[in-house]
Write a structure and sequence with these properties.
binds the ligand C/C(=C\C[C@@]12O[C@]1(C)C(=O)c1ccccc1C2=O)CCC[C@H](C)CCC[C@H](C)CCCC(C)C; elongated; about 170 residues; mainly alpha
């Protein structure tokens, strides 16, 4: 058993690294969501627009981003207040993750974990739509699934470290 002071120090070190990793991953999420929103708006403005993530007939992000599922997750009533692009939900979500990563409070980290879990679950649903309904490979979408998987792992680790520190 290490001296308590040393143990607290190494926990603080690991937490700092975890916070940095959570922020870096979330910023990647903001970047990918913003690029997706850019593609979505560009295709709406000119249907001829060809995005970098349009690699083929079955590997097309613009087809996915202009589908009926691209706003309000395809669940919100069309034309309602919440019928905004999924990408905008993504940008808000990842900004919230950056904000919450700046706190070292166990209760807040639990809130953050719950939010990240909601995002992972919505990604499972979106991945199902992508592969089994739209039959498409959308690279920016797949990237956000990976970002969310990494994010929840990091937040889970941070939650465990904080719980350890408390006792
Ligand atoms: C680019 C992005 C997601 C990709 C995509 O959604 C896109 C663009 C889309 O049009 C689409 C169409 C058809 C099938 C799949 C897809 C997608 O794959 C960003 C969301 C990221 C994240 C999954 C959002 C999570 C929002 C939660 C609602 C957060 C809740 C948290 C609150 C409790 C605070």
């Amino acid at each position: 058993m290490r001296a308590p002071a040393l143990k607290n120090f190494s926990i603080a070190m690991k937490m700092k690294d975890l916070d940095r990793a959570i922020i870096a991953t979330s910023i990647l999420g903001v970047v990918v969501s913003t690029y997706s929103l850019h593609v979505e708006m560009s295709v709406a403005a000119e249907p001829e627009y060809k995005a970098y993530c349009d690699l083929g007939e079955k590997v097309s992000c613009s087809k996915v981003l202009t589908s009926e599922y691209a706003t309000g997750f395809g669940l919100v009533a069309k034309g309602s207040l919440w019928d905004i692009p999924n990408c905008i939900y993504g940008i808000f979500f990842y900004c919230l993750m950056v904000l919450l990563a700046t706190y070292d409070d166990l209760r807040l980290v639990r809130v953050q974990f719950a939010a990240a879990l909601t995002a992972v679950l919505s990604c499972v649903y979106l991945a199902y739509l992508l592969l089994f309904v739209l039959h498409d490979l959308c690279i920016v979408c797949l990237t956000t699934y990976i970002v969310n998987a990494v994010l929840i792992t990091l937040i889970y680790k941070k939650m465990n470290y904080l719980a350890k520190k408390q006792c």
